[in-house]
């Protein structure tokens, strides 16, 4: 008798649940489920090269490809002209990867688009020796091109400072960005005023051109050793780069807080 009662109870519960699903309690409208769902945590990209908080990767580095294949793919996906033997020299593969990840790490900002717009839609990166002690330059070794001296730059990688490579890359690209400074655009007037008030930023460079390149380079490469933004004293330069160059995108914590790299 007890088994019969228990069975009847379960049958009744099943009937109630069935009615609840499609009868007395109608299912919610399609959009209601999405509105009432628990929020999904935003995706936080892991650090790459010298960037503590990069943009979400659009083009992950193709680790399984040969360097000639990487060279061809890199030109295509980033819209670059890559010249020089450094891009296909196996010794410099770590540097090729850092340059790739650095460019992809800023893909959610207008930085590269602005540079190309000021350079007739083109940008040439040459991986070869510079004509001086410098690890890189814009227009000095090869007119109209950013030259990256991988034979010198590999030293930073060997010393565990990949952030220096990222910082150097962004530094030289910033020289392309402000190539129109003689026309006195608004961003340049703003920076000159800030530079007069704040003075020198890093251990390199005194004039506004070099200081701006350092301000922007270290803004991206927050993992670079001895980054001036590790000090809260540089918050004015930080705020300028955030507003005028990167459209409020940040690559690490506020000045005064060291990032997790």
Account of the protein in words:
The protein is mainly alpha-helical and 261 residues long. It has two domains: 2-36; 67-244. It is 46% helix and 5% strand. It contains ten helices and four strands, in the order H-H-H-E-H-H-E-E-E-H-H-H-H-H. A four-stranded mixed beta sheet has the order 1-2-4-3, with helices on one face. A hairpin with a 6-residue loop joins strand 3 and strand 4.
- List how many beta strands DSSP finds: 4
Structural class: mainly alpha
Distance between the termini: 69 Å
Shape: globular
- What is the number of domains? 2
Pick out the low-confidence regions: 1-28, 30-38
Report the sheet with the most strands, covering strand number, pairing sense and barrel closure.
4 strands, mixed
| Overall helicity | 40-55%
Spatial order of strands in the largest sheet = 1-2-4-3
């Amino acid at each position: 008798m007890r088994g019969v009662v228990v069975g009847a109870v379960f049958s009744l519960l099943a009937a109630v649940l069935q009615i609840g699903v499609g009868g007395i309690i109608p299912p919610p409208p399609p959009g209601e489920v999405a509105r009432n769902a628990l929020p999904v945590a935003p995706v936080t990209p892991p650090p790459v090269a010298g960037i503590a908080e990069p943009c979400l990767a659009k083009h992950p580095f193709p680790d399984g490809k040969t360097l000639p294949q990487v060279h061809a793919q890199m030109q295509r996906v980033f819209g670059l002209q890559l010249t020089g033997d450094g891009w296909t020299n196996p010794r410099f593969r770590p540097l090729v990867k850092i340059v790739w990840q650095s460019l992809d790490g800023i893909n959610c900002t207008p930085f590269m688009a602005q540079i190309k717009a000021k350079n007739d839609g083109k940008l040439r990166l040459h991986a070869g020796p510079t004509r001086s002690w410098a690890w890189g330059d814009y227009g000095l070794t090869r007119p109209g091109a950013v030259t990256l001296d991988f034979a010198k730059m590999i030293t930073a990688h060997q010393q565990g400072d990949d952030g220096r490579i990222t910082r150097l890359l962004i530094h030289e690209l910033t020289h392309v960005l402000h190539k129109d400074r003689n026309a006195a655009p608004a961003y340049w007037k703003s920076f000159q005023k800030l530079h007069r008030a704040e003075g020198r930023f890093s251990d390199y460079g005194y004039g506004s051109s070099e200081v701006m390149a350092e301000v922007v380079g270290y803004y991206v490469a927050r993992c670079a050793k001895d980054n001036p933004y590790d000090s809260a004293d540089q918050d004015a330069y930080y705020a300028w780069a955030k507003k005028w160059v990167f459209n409020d995108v940040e690559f690490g914590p506020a000045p005064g807080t060291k990032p997790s790299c």
